[in-house]
Amino acid sequence: MIGVITDFRLATRNLRRNTQRSLVAVLTVASGIVAFLLAGGFIAWIFHDMREATILSQLGHIQIVRPDYFEKGIADPYAFLLPAQSAEQRIVEDEPGVITVTPRLAFSGLASHGDATIAFVGDEIDPERERPISSRVTIQTGVDIAGPEQRSVLLGEGLARNLGVQTGEVIVLLVTTASGSPSAVEVSVAGTFATISKEYDDVALRLPITLARKLMRIQGSTSWVVLLDETEKTHLVVSRLRAKLPADGFELVPWNTLADFYNKTVVLFSKQVSVVKFIIGLIIVLTISNTQTMSVLERTQEVGTSLAIGQRRRVVMRMFIAEGVLIGVLGGLGGILIGYLLAQLVSMIGIPMPPPPGMARGYVGQILVSSALAGEALVLALLTTLLASVMPARRASRMNIVDSLRHNQ
């Protein structure tokens, strides 16, 4: 420990001998870390915002269904119905961390208005229970469905546009019941909504669950959607509920299993961040390696003198490595501080972004610098400067003593 402290004390003094060059090296590392934090923080914010939007507009944190519903239930959803009221639902509602549990009944059919007839995919919902889970569903026109008995429908904005229907007008819904017979109902359009997915908005509608059950002539629901107080608790709550609910009657599916678009986006952007990280690391390595090489050349006689009086070669090598690590620490911490302040400033102003693929409208981006990202940036600064210092330090430790003493003579 005493030797390490001595190494860093000497490294501090050696860096102060050429303040300008040391400052350039530190600023180079800091600039790279700032770039990494801003790029990584923007991607982290996209992940966080998309995650919450996906949860709070469609999926919830957990969906509870009958086993094999997602594999076979699309063809015959009525064979996988959950009970309308049950002790198991109350168990889920009483679980710590659960905010609400809402039933949903998925169905499909045809929607008609005037001469237009379009296929739709519907979710029958309990409006009061659904409201917390659908906080990211934006009502574009009209109003939300007020209660489970209301004889009205909420249309995705794309579906409403394709039907040519306005708020307050009447449309006809035609479906096939569980027994195979046709069933139809006239409903007024309460309003239109939009989510993060344009594809979903082009075909989706929402109907009060009481009216939907009468239309479909069934009781029960195809899923229970669970909202938690924290997304990070999802897998913990899933594991606890699996221990309480019978495995042969209920399947618990966390949101990330169903969020295919989100998962693909994370994989794509994560690879982009890795490329940025590699490029920044390469720039730091080349710059610091050049700086350390210059330092070794300027101190050739000094190194030769140290070796001549008995200084061990590993101590000389350790001295130059300590200088590189110190540059990494100073540049990393400085870059994290500057990056965090810039991230806060940019987030206050906002980053106007165009609509991404599959979405109908743009958004205002921000930069999210988490402690994990800051730690990753500091590790990047330390590893790259350490790597950059190894070759110059090795060169210094392997100098020929006689040639070093004759340098510049």
TrEMBL record:
Stored InterPro entries: ABC3_permease_C (IPR003838), Lipoprotein-release_system (IPR051447), MacB_PCD (IPR025857)
Residue stretches making up the MacB-like periplasmic core domain: 22-243
Topological category with respect to the lipid bilayer: Multi-pass membrane protein
Domain ABC3 transporter permease C-terminal: 278-401
Localization per record: Cell membrane
Predominant subcellular localization, coarse grouping: membrane
GO biological process, one term: lipoprotein localization to outer membrane
GO CC list: plasma membrane protein complex
Keywords attached to this entry: Cell membrane, Membrane, Transmembrane, Transmembrane helix
Pfam families in the record: FtsX, MacB_PCD
Membrane-crossing segments per the record: 23-47, 273-291, 320-343, 363-390
Similarity comment: Belongs to the ABC-4 integral membrane protein family. LolC/E subfamily.
Protein name: ABC transporter permease
Species name: Candidatus Accumulibacter proximus
